[in-house]
Amino acid sequence: MCVSVCVSHGICRSLSLCVYIYSNTHSGGGLRWQMAEFTHLVVVKFKEEVVVEDIIKGLEELVSQVDIVKSFVWGKDIESMEMLRQGFTHAFMMTFGSKDDFTAFQTHPNHMQFSATFSAAIEKIVLLDFPVVAFKTPQ
Amino acid sequence: MCVSVCVSHGICRSLSLCVYIYSNTHSGGGLRWQMAEFTHLVVVKFKEEVVVEDIIKGLEELVSQVDIVKSFVWGKDIESMEMLRQGFTHAFMMTFGSKDDFTAFQTHPNHMQFSATFSAAIEKIVLLDFPVVAFKTPQ
């Protein structure tokens, strides 16, 4: 396993955090790179009476206040068949530079405060937290 | 609404696809940018007897074969409480340059062929397809 800072390596030319850990495995003709990133993925269905825009504003304020949140993107499903999305409507993804940063985020007072609001707004949720394996990245 | 190619704008300095559509809305002290990207998010629990590594190799082959898949990252949950991940273990995310590219992917013969294998391997699935709203991007 090697850690490299890749300035000119094509695979991460377009990414900001160019520290990858070669994962020792390769398959399908490509190499897997374990990005030095950790993703917090939240998929939800909000309660009917909830003003979703207010919740999203709250999330935006939270990630603006907490520097260790490296990125925050989200989306509202517009395409899936109901049997596949199973009532879930929104996905929220935050990334962190490391698992340690994510752990620090979990107990950050702003996060804990907002979590109460968020929890009260959701009808159902699936939450996954994982180190990012990047197989194909934008060229 | 304006479309801009941002070479020097800080918010997308580190991203490869620097075409953003200003979404006309702002909140929380920040601006929302509608990226010219479409995400296909799949969250799954595999059947017990499945060799997950084989499925992942199949996915890697698929995204290697199909150029319109702009990026493919995935992860296996290592952190969530069971009540929050609800048995789901893996998240797979593919991005496309546009919804049209995603639509083309759905009927691509390689995708249709692999979908049969993938469907047979899963015990449960949640699938969301959405245009990406990027509120905070890596600096």
TrEMBL record, chains A, B:
Superkingdom of this protein's organism: Eukaryota
InterPro entries referenced in this protein's UniProt entry, alphabetically: Dabb, Dimeric_a/b-barrel, HS1/DABB1-like
PANTHER family tied to this protein: EXPRESSED PROTEIN, PTHR33178
Listed Pfam families: Dabb
Domain Stress-response A/B barrel: 38-130
Subunit-structure text: Homodimer.
UniProt-recorded name of the protein: Stress-response A/B barrel domain-containing protein
SMART domains named in the record: Dabb (SM00886)
Organism: Lactuca saligna (Willowleaf lettuce)
